[in-house]
Amino acid sequence: MRFRLLKRNLLALLLVSFVVVTLLFLSIVSDGDESGPRDGGARAGETVKFNFGSLPELSRSVYAANYKQCVLNAERFVGDPQLVLVVQVHDRPEYLRLLIRSLEEAAEVHRFLVIFSHDHFTEEINAMVQGITFCRVVQIYFPFSTQLYPKEFPGQDPRDCPRDVPKDSAVKTGCLNAEHPDSYGHYREAAITQTKHHWWWKLHFVWERVHVMQGYSGFAVFLEEDNYILPDFLQFYRSMVEWRKNSCPDCDMLALGNHNGVTDFTRLSNKVSTTGWMSTKHNMGMAISREVYYKLMGCSSEFCTYDDYNWDWTLQHLSGTCIPKPLKVLVAQGSRVLHTGDCGLHQKGNCRPEWAAQKVEEALKVAKHGFFPPSLALSGAEAVEHKAHMKNGGWGDVRDHSLCNNYAKRL
To answer: Which of 2, 28, 295, 347 is the least crowded, having the fewest Cβ atoms under 10 Å away?
Structure first.
């Protein structure tokens, strides 16, 4: 049994290595000219034409785009960005359109650099992002998307064990991952694991590989496609950075959003608080510095093997365990990020994005008198401590562990 387990682990590692090396080779040969950004710069305005005709062509397009890293609107907006936003995009174009509208209406948006990180590739979404003219834009593409691997790992291999089959039955049938259910006896679902994979890959790629990020010393604010930023987002971000510098130098992260919407927004507009980072409260509009990125990457093994398919619950687990001092966060009490999505990972039907647009309009009317506060005030300071929780499972497959750990390596 031990030999068979070792053999399966070795095969999984070999498979992951083969995938990584093969795709890296494709990324190089798909754009072999010497005019690419080998000096660390990116060509401005020149986009990669995506070919959606077949999976190999789409894969080559993904790698060519990640290699070239075209900066849209770079000639129009010069100088260093004052704020970097990183948006994780899947396949909800109606919500993404709302987010883009909020960006366009934000004050001083020309000072933004917005990085869109995609794990689902469509002409509609590409055209939507490439149609942005009001700030600099970079698109990056998760190269291990289940869309590119529909019938093999990291997608769902038909030889994989069904989610709910008992382990003894799985071992008897010889399905690929029989020895590696999660903590609750369930086998991996590719659609469930992708979000955590994408988030960890994106974190590494943004800080290590995106050329225009080299030398950037500010925070990167992480958003999702169903977020909507308020008009004073940049001004409030600046105020939080300055307040942190003067009053909370040990605050590791910023949270520009919360899940309370615009409830009592005018009163709370200038209020901030400090506390320990919690996944259910501080995962929206989360701002991470390069220093905190290094702390997280030092815990790559723990992140990649912790049996929870949620990146944010995994992050909370690291805070106070692998990262000895729990992460401290400076939180906006008046959220500068609204959550518009009524559909997500576990809910696919009855999505009504038109309701989201209506709710946004109503929220803006409620909040408008609280925008652009002249200064910030501390409303509370809670103890910073490790918050243990029951892990959610969904992340027991050694192939996921191996692939995840590869993102932090210089390939």
So the answer is: 2
Tens of pLDDT, residue by residue over 273-306, are: 999 999 999 999 999 999 999 999 999 999 999 9
Identify which of 395, 392, 385, 265 has the alpha carbon closest to the alpha carbon of residue 333. 265
Residues counted in the chain: 411
H or E, element range at 353:
helix 353-367
Beta strands per DSSP E along 160-265: 220-224, 227-229, 253-255
Write out the two tokens for 288: 């991470």
Taking the C-alpha atoms of residue 401 and residue 407, their distance in angstroms, rounded to an integer, is 11
Alpha-carbon distance 267 to 245, whole Å? 24
Which tens digits make up the pLDDT trace of 54-79?
999 999 999 999 999 999 999 999 99
Calpha distance 108→122 (Å, rounded): 30
What phi-psi label fits residue 261: left (phi over 0), alpha (psi between -120 and 50 degrees) or beta?
Answer: left
Amino acid at 48: V
* CB distance 232 to 372 below 8 Å: yes
Residues making up the binding site for substrate: 88-92, 119, 194-198
Please state the residue numbers annotated as binding site for Mn(2+). 226, 339
